[in-house]
Design brief:
By secondary structure, the chain is of the alpha+beta class. Helices cover 50% and strands 7% of the residues. A five-stranded antiparallel beta sheet has the order 18-17-21-22-23, sandwiched between helices. A three-stranded antiparallel beta sheet has the order 4-3-5. The longest helix has 48 residues. Bound molecules: zinc ion (7 copies). One zinc ion binds next to loops. The site of one zinc ion (ZN) has 6 residues, from helix 62.
Length: 1781
């Protein structure tokens, strides 16, 4: 073993390796025979005597081990400035830990541990500790609380995978609860951890599986090592060690150790380090990253002074912030021992993994009390020192706790007790510490408190509930004079501290989360004790933050309110849970009720506040109350005690305790006026705020009122205030209540004074005042509606919990259809984050699935509309009016009347039953009457329609109530609800007002109240219905409503007529509206096409294709001498900028299309290739892997070239001005020539000129009869090339006199009619020429990423290349989608391809003729050998389509000097045939030969021909090409392989020559091979080309096959692309999103040694996982630091990229360094919604359609464009530093 290690240990004292682990352990001392210890070896050990410790025989084992450690540890760890973790670990294992393992096992641990493992009965607990970002699963059906989670493996093997589960990513820490029977209501075990049926779940001492010896030895070693680790980790001296570890001679080597804190930012630390220790930025980043991860890192190594100096610089530099960075100068041996201490702890953790027995021993050791008594166990010591330890140390020992104490059922309990005993101290340490919660031992509370049995045990035995609450109160020391909490200004620091304190509330929640099923007396007693403490806490909140109305001046400073509300919000669930606990036990409930009431009375001690008693009286009723005005005195929104009492009161009713044990309840002590007083004040405050009376109190009050009603708080605020009022009213005379209410609303005057209203309006009082009072009256009526109508809490009304939730949902969906997440947000969640929605949603709503965009929606079932209550108490004002509008619209659509009457309500519970009398009380009737009177008399502004509407609603409610009573009346029972009777009576003297009924009838005809007519009619109908019931049962007489029925009928007729007319008018209106919206939609649809590049839009067929009836369809030929002649067509276009129309001609001013040129790897077959050195790169030959292409796209919008120039100049100028002013980015980069299309804002970076077919501009009409055949033509061209080459050579040698030239020319026989000195005239106008150069240069610049240079010889090549590449990419898309080749293309694509092809064909006219000729010669030479070129690629390494395009487009440069009579068309045809044949040979050489496909003798002509061609190839390659299996097979390969090429060629020649496509190619369907061949002037049997030209072809084939590259390919020495090339897709994504999360959580940053990546990001193009948005993986690109994604786009996507940010579930598009946007991910939950940020945690599944859409954007090169549109739409996207992602 020693020898193996030797290479590792240069820096280490070799003597360390001299004895083996077993010797040290003393297991086999000296057993190795013949082993002679070198006696001359340097003495080791303390006394200078050779000393071999033999632990097994040692009397003082501790001393021996410590000596060994003292000697060895500093020699292994911390030997220099940088740590070598691998080396240190190997050595530590061998020298330090090995002996211990030997000692434990008593034999070789390689044998011993497996034995232990075998004897071990595996635990049923999984206990896997989660890594950061690892997916965790919780079952919403079976988890006891949401903190119960499973790891992915357990989850997949559990029953919960088919349940309603929730998925989240772990923040690190915490472990899998699989196997914990207390965590799951069902299915606690997964398959792996399940019980065998034979096993009995019973606790068994795990030590029985171990031998006595092993137990004893393990105990010894664990005790020593655990203590050692604790001692050294909690050691505080910096340059001294504990005595028994101290060495004799100490070197002067120190570390400057930097610690992590949460105050300083990364940037500050990096900056400071660069200054302090003189390191590079890279090193500083490295240090900072480690400090952040591990909590500390040495930043300097050397003598004391050297390190101390660095320390003072760091401290000085960072002390400007709140506190300086923590730095220690530490002796290297201290650091060494601390490092080993950590190692020892993780070692303990791994050793106990072998056996539950070992684990138990460790627990025993850890919890054993030390010599100092209380809190002296090792576990205690670690916990109590937690906040002093650095991050790395903390997580190591936390993990050890989790894998030991928390995994052992017996010790878990003991540990829980220790934890609870230390609770207060741990919490206050945590609060003052600044590390995140997950790095604090306090965070273990979730592991302990959420175990129901432990929680209950801790409550009963350790009084945990009280402890937590007391600890919490201790942290909130600031109180006002009344002892209530008082919060300081909410500064950042305050907020930080306060957040930490809140974790105690979370603990309280954990303790309460699982409710007891059984109560012991002890639990009752301690719970009630805790309840007392809780009341104490709430008492400090009762009345906190009181406010007084500001009059005159606006408040100067917004008062602090957030802290109080945060507290309330955090406590909301706890308050609810406390009530739930109380509900479970009658005794507890009764006691709690008493206690709560007592505390409330205390709070109200000074109830009257010295206010004057007054007497109110209306309608002969009078009541005593106090004078109190909300608008003048202090009032508070915080009333938790009275709200808790309200909650308990409902529970009394719900559990029927109130009826069972009335004698035990202090009901007689209840004073209803006292109960209602404060909640009423609070509600009046809300009303007054709404009425605008508190405007001067600023926004803080508005916010408070908002939260008071908000779904997060209302359950324990607003809702309970309503309940409290209901409680009070049900116990008092409703008339009294109404008078008190009038008084608190400050409306008593108005209603108690006769004719007040009249006087009020006649006096020209403040208009504001009138408005204010109107609003207050409306609010008061609303409150009455709520008090009587809100009976959907179980206990208030006779309903179940599902009724309540159903009603909430119905009202939410009455506003509008909603997505699942929206609905969840609007419903209150319980402590388990459940809304209960799933259980009822199906009964009230339909689900509508989402389309390609948008979300799935729930729509209210129509039959539920009748349960709609306009005055639902959880509506905000905006929601209420939206819902009203929506419901009325719905009714109109259904041709119903538009009344929205109150729904029928469930009955009250008996305790609240008397509430209904509010409706028929005298004061109520009086109020109703008064308001109706105002409406009848139509007092100016002193009443409002809303007021009337509410009164009508109240009347409706009363009628509903009466009807219900009558229908459910028990025989003989006296009916007490007689509303109909009361409203039929006219008012008493002296008022003598008409009856309410009479007034209703009057109002029915009031023309101004059209809106309310339907409602009034409904009321009257209802009234008559009740009357009928009464008459039929004739229990009590009802006053006659004379004449109503008579009137009714005549009125009805009248009505019917009016209604019919209205109906006709409505229909007409609707029709017009429908027409208009149809037109609008049409317009949008049409224009949408401008923005979405979709090939599938069939509607917009390119116009030019259609109107060409001129040519006969039958024999369309795209090229060659036989090319179908297309009559010239005149083309007119309109400039989008000046709107002028112009014809496209050769001489006219140039018209241009906005275009976007980009590099592309979409078609690439080799993503490792990219252009290394653009200056030297030669693009002439495109490799068949298409690794780097240049794509051109266009939105198809046409402009004058000069209009565009002017536009672009102005954009540029504007941009320069703007940048100077604002320094903002735009979505486009003007300096790079980018601009937005002025019409559609599509990102563009150049323009393409519009041209007529360029060939016709040159074609000299010739006699086609005598054209050369292929062989002749090749010979002629070869001669011409030769002539040119000679000429060129002489040009390059200027010495030779020009006369000789001509002689030489004659020497080499210039072919007949060839005039190399002829220079054709350029036919284009200057403006077109200029644009040809512009676009050519742009393509060159972008494609090669070089500076523009129009003279560069590569410019024409880039133009041809972009044309070829763009055609190929479109052909791929069409084939992938099985679209016809010449089917309807969107105009923009059609225009783009046409312009691009014609441009590329015309570009040679502005390039240098010799250059283009040179390119032609070289391209030609790749097929027809020519001695002058040596470095040509072999035919396997050429993309034939690129070659074809290059040859065809360069050819005119040669042909223009040829006057022999050979035409361009002839040349095109021959070039095309030649390249086609080369491609066939290429395909035959590379197609893989499948054997076993033998067919009988080939029959078809094609098959025979291809077989013979193959034979030729076989011969030419010297039999290297395998024999062909079958002709049929070969022919199939050739056809399949060549089809893409033929299709591209067809597109190319179609756009080049303008010959319309044959109709067969315009429709999709089966292969159109024959049509394609005909169109391209090819024989259907392609092999015939070879046969017809065998003379020349045989020699060419021979030359192709002789190439050495071809040979080496055939020998299998290199690869080659085979055909057809498959199309590139984005990577396959898994169906279940969690497997992606899992994959990402296993991914570690490639640069920082096994560290987890914070933002793992998946490249959807190649599947690489990247460590994004992090310093560690930044790379340098063009002199700038960029994030991993941006760096990756440059290699993988030549600048553009598509990523999936796995933690966020978000798609990221990037382009270049400055452009990016987020895109909605292709994963949806079952409700059809995405979950960006993974906040909801619903299971997510791949949506294929959406993924295909993303893929299409990519294939269509639209990523950059999409980013542009997103950035234009959302300016904030522009500001993001995309390059750092
Ligand atoms: Zn697990
Ligand atoms: Zn499991
Ligand atoms: Zn389940
Ligand atoms: Zn123009
Ligand atoms: Zn446009
Ligand atoms: Zn990284
Ligand atoms: Zn990639």
């Amino acid at each position: 073993m020693a020898s193996e290690l030797e290479s590792e240990v240069q820096a280490i004292d070799r003597s360390l390796l001299e004895c083996s682990a077993e010797e040290i352990a003393g297991v086999r001392a000296g057993a190795r025979e013949g082993y002679v210890r070198p006696s001359q070896a340097a003495p080791r050990g303390r006394n200078g005597v050779l000393e071999i410790p033999k632990w097994l025989q040692a009397t003082d084992l501790t001393r021996e081990v410590y000596q060994h450690l003292a000697h060895c540890v500093p020699k292994i760890y911390c030997r220099g400035p940088n740590p070598f973790p691998q080396k240190e670990d190997t050595l530590a294992q061998h020298i330090l830990l090995g002996p211990m393992e030997w000692y434990i096992c008593g034999e070789d641990p390689a044998l011993g541990f497996p034995k232990l493992e075998q004897a071990n009965k595996p635990s049923h607990l999984c206990g896997r500790v989660f890594k950061v970002g690892e997916p965790t699963y919780s079952c919403r059906d079976c988890a006891v609380d949401p903190t119960c989670v499973l790891c992915m493996e357990c989850f997949l093997g559990s029953i919960h995978r088919d349940h309603r589960y929730r998925m989240t990513t772990s923040g690190g820490g915490g472990f899998c609860d699989c196997g914990d029977t207390e965590a799951w209501k069902e299915g606690p075990y997964c398959q792996k951890h399940g019980l065998n049926s034979s096993e009995v779940v019973e606790e068994e001492d795990p030590l029985v599986h171990l031998s006595e010896d092993v137990i004893a030895r393990t105990y010894n070693i664990f005790a020593i090592m655990f203590r050692y680790a604790v001692d050294i980790l909690t050691w505080e001296k910096e340059s001294e060690l504990p005595a028994d570890l101290e060495m004799e001679e100490k070197s002067d080597t120190y570390y400057c150790m930097l610690f992590n804190d949460e105050v300083h930012t990364y940037e500050q630390v990096i900056y400071t380090l660069q200054k302090a220790v003189n390191c590079t930025q890279k090193e500083a980043i490295g240090f900072a990253t480690t400090v952040d991860r591990d909590g500390r890192r040495s930043v300097r190594y050397g003598d004391f002074q050297y390190c101390d100096q660095a320390k003072s610089v760091i401290v000085r530099n960072t002390s400007r912030q709140t506190k300086p960075l923590k730095v220690q100068v530490m002796h290297s041996s201290v650091a060494a021992h601390q490092n080993f201490g950590l190692k020892a702890l993780s070692w303990l953790g791994s050793v106990i993994g072998y056996s539950d027995g070992l684990r138990r021993i460790l627990c025993q050791v850890g919890l054993q009390e030390g010599p100092d008594g209380e809190n002296s166990s090792l576990v205690d010591r670690l916990m109590l020192n937690d906040s002093k330890l650095w991050k790395g140390a903390r997580s190591v020992y936390h993990q050890l706790f989790m894998s030991s104490l928390l995994m052992d059922l017996k010790y878990k309990k003991l540990f829980a007790v220790r934890f609870a005993k230390n609770y207060e101290r741990l919490q206050s340490d945590y609060v003052t510490d600044d590390h995140d919660r997950e790095f604090s031992v306090a965070d273990l509370s979730v592991q302990i408190f959420t175990v129901p049995s432990l929680a209950r045990m801790l409550i009963t035995e350790e009084n945990l509930m009280t402890v937590i609450i007391k600890a919490f109160m201790d942290h909130l020391k600031q109180r006002d004079a009344q002892g209530r909490f008082q919060f300081e200004r909410y500064t950042a620091l305050q907020a930080f501290k306060f957040r930490r304190v809140q974790s105690l509330i979370l603990d309280l929640k954990y303790v309460l989360i699982s409710k007891p099923t059984e109560w012991s007396d002890g639990l009752r007693q301690k719970f009630l004790e805790g309840f007392d403490a809780f009341l104490e806490l709430l008492k400090c909140m009762q009345g906190m933050d009181p406010i007084t109305r500001q009059v005159g001046q606006h408040i100067e400073m917004e008062p602090e309110w957030e802290a109080a509300f945060t507290l309330q919000m955090k406590l909301t669930h706890v308050i609810s849970m406390v009530q739930d606990w109380c509900a479970l036990d009658e005794k507890v409930l009764i006691e709690a009720y008493k206690k709560c009431l007592a505390v409330l009375m205390q709070c109200h001690g000074g109830f009257t506040d010295g206010e004057q008693p007054i007497t109110l009286s209306i309608c002969g009723h009078s009541v005593e109350t106090i004078r109190y005005c909300v608008s003048q005195e202090k009032v508070s929104i915080h009333l938790p005690i009275s709200r808790l009492l309200a909650g308990l009161h409902v529970l009394l009713s719900k559990s029927e305790v109130a009826y069972k044990f009335p004698e035990l309840l202090p009901l007689s002590e209840l004073s209803p006026p006292m109960l209602i007083e404060h909640p009423l004040r609070c509600l009046v405050l809300c009303a007054q705020v709404h009425a605008g009376m508190w405007r001067r109190n600023g926004f803080s009050l508005v916010n408070q009122i908002y939260y008071y009603h908000n779904v997060k708080c209302r359950r324990e605020m607003f809702d309970k205030d309503i309940v409290m009022l209901q409680t009070g009213v049900s116990m008092m005379d409703p008339n009294h209540f109404l008078m008190i209410m009038l008084s608190r609303f400050e409306l008593y005057q108005i209603f108690s004074t006769p004719d007040y209203g009249k006087r009020f309006s006649s006096e020209v009082t403040h208009k504001d005042m009138v408005q204010q009072n109107n609003t207050l009256i409306e609010e008061m009526l609303y409150l009455i509606i709520m008090l009587v109508g809100e009976r959907f809490s179980p206990g208030v009304g006779q309903v179940s919990a599902t009724d309540e939730i159903k009603r909430e949902i119905i009202h939410q969906l009455s506003i509008k259809p909603m997505a699942h997440s929206e609905l969840v947000k609007s419903l209150p969640e319980d402590e388990n984050k459940e809304t209960g929605m799933e259980s009822v949603i199906e009964t009230v709503a339909h689900f509508k699935k989402p389309g390609l965009t948008g979300r799935g929606m729930y729509e209210l079932k129509p039959e539920c509309a009748k349960e709609f209550n306009l005055y639902f108490y959880h509506f905000s004002r905006a929601e209420q009016s939206k819902a009203e509008e929506a419901q009325r619209k719905l009714k109109r659509q259904n041709r119903e009347d538009t009344a929205l009457p109150p729904p029928a309500l469930p009955p009250f519970c008996p305790l609240f039953a008397s509430l209904v009398n509010l409706l028929q009380s005298d004061v109520m009737l009086y109020i109703m009457g008064t308001i109706l009177q105002w409406a009848v008399e139509h007092h100016g502004s002193a009443w409002s329609e809303s007021m009337l509407q509410r009164v009508l609603h109240l009347i409706g409610m009363a009628l509903q109530e009466e009807k219900h009573h009558l229908e459910n009346a028990v025989e003989g029972h006296v009916e007490t609800f007689t509303f109909t009777q009361k409203i039929s009576k006219p008012g008493d003297a002296p008022n003598n007002s008409p009856s309410i009924l009479a007034m209703l009838e009057t109002l029915q005809n009031a023309p101004s109240l059209e809106v309310h007519k339907d409602m009034i009619r409904w009321l009257l109908k209802m009234f008559n219905a009740i009357k009928k019931i009464r008459e039929s049962s004739s229990t009590s007489p009802v006053a006659e409503t004379e004449g109503t029925i008579m009137e009714e009928s005549s009125r009805d007729k009248d009505k019917a007529e009016r209604k019919r007319k209205a109906e006709i008018a409505r229909l007409r209106r609707e029709k017009i509206m429908a027409q208009m919206s149809e037109m609008q939609r049409h317009f949008i649809d049409e224009n949408k096409e401008l923005f979405q590049q979709t090939v599938e839009l069939d509607a917009s067929v390119s116009a030019t294709l259609d109107d060409r009836p001129l040519v006969s369809d039958t024999a369309l030929t795209a090229l060659g001498p036989a090319q179908t002649q297309v009559p010239e067509q005149r083309q007119f276009v309109t400039c989008i900028l000046c709107q002028e129309e112009q014809e496209v001609t050769v001489e006219s001013r140039a018209m241009v299309l906005a275009a976007f040129v980009q590099r592309s790897t979409v078609l690439s077959k080799d993503r490792t290739k990219f252009i290394q050195d653009p200056e030297k790169y030669d693009p002439l030959f495109m490799h068949p892997d298409l690794s780097c292409g240049t794509h051109t796209g266009s939105c198809g919008h046409v402009m004058h070239a000069h209009c565009w120039q002017r536009y672009f100049d102005s954009v540029q100028a504007k941009e320069q001005r703007r940048q100077q002013r604002l320094r903002l980015h735009t979505s486009y980069d003007v300096e790079n020539g980018e601009f937005l299309c002025p019409l559609c804002e599509c990102l563009s970076n150049t323009v393409i000129p519009l041209l007529l077919p360029p060939r016709s501009a040159f074609s000299r009409r010739l006699n086609f009869s005598d054209q050369p055949d292929l062989t002749q033509w090749i010979r002629t061209i070869s001669q011409q090339i030769k002539a040119l080459q000679v000429l060129r050579k002489e040009d390059n040698a200027p010495d030779t006199p020009s006369t000789e030239n001509i002689e030489d020319m004659s020497d080499i026989q210039v072919p007949e009619g060839f005039r190399p000195d002829f220079h054709p005239k350029n036919p284009y106008s200057d403006s077109i020429k200029e644009m040809l150069t512009t676009f050519g240069t742009a393509t060159y610049k972008v494609g090669l990423k070089v500076h523009p240079n129009e003279e560069d010889p590569r410019v024409p090549i880039m133009c041809w290349g972009s044309c070829a590449y763009t055609i190929q990419s479109i052909e791929r898309i069409l084939s992938d989608e099985e679209k016809p080749l010449f089917g309807p293309l969107p105009c923009r694509l059609d225009d783009c391809l046409r312009s691009l092809t014609r441009f590329a064909a015309a570009h040679w006219t502005v390039a240098s003729l010799p250059v283009v000729q040179g390119h032609f010669c070289k391209l030609f030479a790749s097929l027809v050998p020519n001695d002058s070129y040596e470095d040509l690629p072999c035919i396997l390494d050429i993309d034939m389509f690129h070659l074809l395009v290059g040859l065809v487009l360069a050819f005119p440069a040669l042909q223009c000097q040829d006057f022999s009579g050979s035409s361009v068309g002839t040349g095109d045809l021959h070039i095309f045939h030649l390249v086609t044949m080369a491609h066939i040979v290429q395909i035959l050489l590379t197609s893989c030969t499948e054997n076993g496909m033998d067919q009988e003798n080939p029959t078809g002509e094609e098959e025979l021909a291809v077989l013979s061609l193959h034979k030729t190839l076989h011969q030419c390659t010297g039999s290297a090409l395998e024999e062909a299996p079958s002709g049929w097979h070969l022919w199939r390969n050739v056809r399949a392989g060549i089809t893409p090429f033929l299709k591209c060629s067809a597109l190319f020649f179609h756009y080049l020559n303008g010959v319309p496509a044959p109709p067969d190619l315009q429709v999709s369907g089966t292969s159109h091979f024959e049509h394609l061949c005909n169109y391209l002037s090819l024989p259907t049997n392609l092999i015939r080309l070879f046969q017809e030209n065998s003379e020349i072809m045989n020699s060419l084939i021979e030359s192709w096959c002789q190439n050495s590259e071809v040979k080496s390919y055939l020998k299998g020495e290199r690869g080659a692309i085979s055909y057809p090339r498959g199309s590139n897709k984005l990577i396959d994504l898994p169906e279940d999103y969690s497997s992606l999360i899992n994959q990402a959580s296993n991914f570690s940053c490639p640069k920082s040694g096994g560290d987890k990546s914070r933002a793992p990001t998946l490249c959807l193009v190649c599947g690489s996982l990247l460590c994004s948005q992090s310093y560690c993986c930044q790379a340098e690109l063009e002199g700038e630091d960029v994030g991993a994604c941006t760096a990756h786009t440059y290699s993988c996507g030549s600048g553009a990229g598509i990523f999936l940010r796995v933690r966020e579930c978000q798609v990221l598009f990037l382009a270049g360094k400055t452009k990016g946007c987020f895109y909605s991910p292709p994963y949806l939950d079952d409700y059809g919604e995405t979950d960006q940020g993974l906040r909801r945690g619903n299971p997510l599944h791949l949506c294929q359609e959406r993924f295909r859409k993303i893929q299409k954007l990519w294939q269509q090169h639209s990523i950059t464009e999409e980013i542009g549109h997103a950035q234009e739409a959302n300016q904030t996207l522009v500001g993001i530093d995309w390059q750092h992602l």
